[in-house]
Amino acid sequence: METTKSLRFLFLALLFSMCGGQVHSVVSSNNVALLGLAMAGLSTVVVYAVAYKIDKDNLKKEEDYFMEEDEECGDDNECLDMESRGGKHLLERCHVKFLKRIWPGLVSFIGLSVAAVAIVSDEQSEKTCDEPLDLSFRGLSSLEDEKLVDLKKYTTLFLEDNKFTSLTKITEQVNPNLTLLNIAKNKIKSLNSIGLLKNLFRVDVSHNEISIVPKEISKLNDLASFVATGNKLKQLSDELCTLQNLRLLNLSENQITRLSKNIGNMSRLGVLDLTSNKLTTLPDGMSDMKLLVVLYLASNELIPYNLEVIGKLKQLVKLDISGNKPLLKGENNEIDHLWNLHELVELYLSNNGLKELPEGIGNLRKLKILDLNNNNLTSIPEEIGNMQKLKKFNLSSNKLGKDWSDGEVDADVCVSEDDLVGCCRCPVSHEFFDDISVALRAQLDAV
Length: 447
Prior knowledge:
This protein is an alpha/beta fold and about 450 residues long. The chain has helices at about 1-25, 30-75, 75-125, 170, 305-310, 430-445, and strands spanning about 135, 155-160, 180, 200-205, 225, 235, 250, 260, 270-275, 295, 320, 345-350, 370, 390-395. It has two domains: about 1-125; about 135-445, Leucine-rich repeat, LRR (right-handed beta-alpha superhelix) (Alpha-Beta Horseshoe), CATH 3.80.10. The relative contact order is 0.05.
């Protein structure tokens, strides 16, 4: 009898767990499906309770019968065997009765559960749309102007070049599961409500009036790309450094003077763009960024010491440190740290006042693009000939004559009437992106 009770209570517990799971799946999704499912679960429980009460009464009567038989038999073994057989028969009959009474409610429960799940699936498919919603270039200052559009359906939203002044007015009306948001070229001053969009994967807030990255951004655990070029940021904050899934960070054309010492916590960052800021130093923690393959530091005020930090990023594929005149004026050959970057494919050293190019540059055998434009070079070392993969070599606006090198360079080099090399800086090629992809995959596999 105890075994029978245990089985019944276990079955009841399973019913409750099934009902709870199904109800959870439809909460806030479809009231009709939820009501039907709740009624099915309740009817199943009621049927079970009635069946259990009837079985319990019958079980009591049959127990009394066997107790009377036991008193007549005494200690006779045959009667004990008969009781044992009778007890087993009693349990079997109770199980059969229980299953006969419980199966209608169970079947109805399962049927309604399947129907509810189907209804919810249809509704969810109608709620979201994989196509992007592009409301750019419309002069919008509020999404209330777009009442005919169901904003909650879309997970990709473009609001570029409008007149928005507050992010809050946007986050309150869009899908909370938004994955891509482009609000570039507006007049937004704060990102304080960005934490409400926890599923964001890509964000572009370029060319606004943002001066601070709020703590709320640390809630965006899935954020992989954050572009905030052309704002009023003055530092790369600790909050950004908590985004461990970030792959691309573009903070160019700001007023950044300091980088967080915790920058190394962005362990998966592959591309970092800090062009056109006011940086003078780089934190030592930057050397911990083992997946960083593209680094833009052009047009800053970096000092020679920073070359040692950069030289530790041995996985770099592209490096641009153009326009940092103080950077290459060191007296201790700090520039030699660059020749340890053996994976470099593109190197930009233009507009640095460089007077001499060390022989160590020949170590960069994978280099395909080398830009030395607008320096004060008077000669080129023969070791430049070691770079057999070099395709674009920009030496314009230097002080080179016809006999600037005895080495042969396999590159597109053009000499002007002024005995200066006149090749223009080329755009990034498809081959470069292939190299970046290979480098990123190799670094990710090593982690």
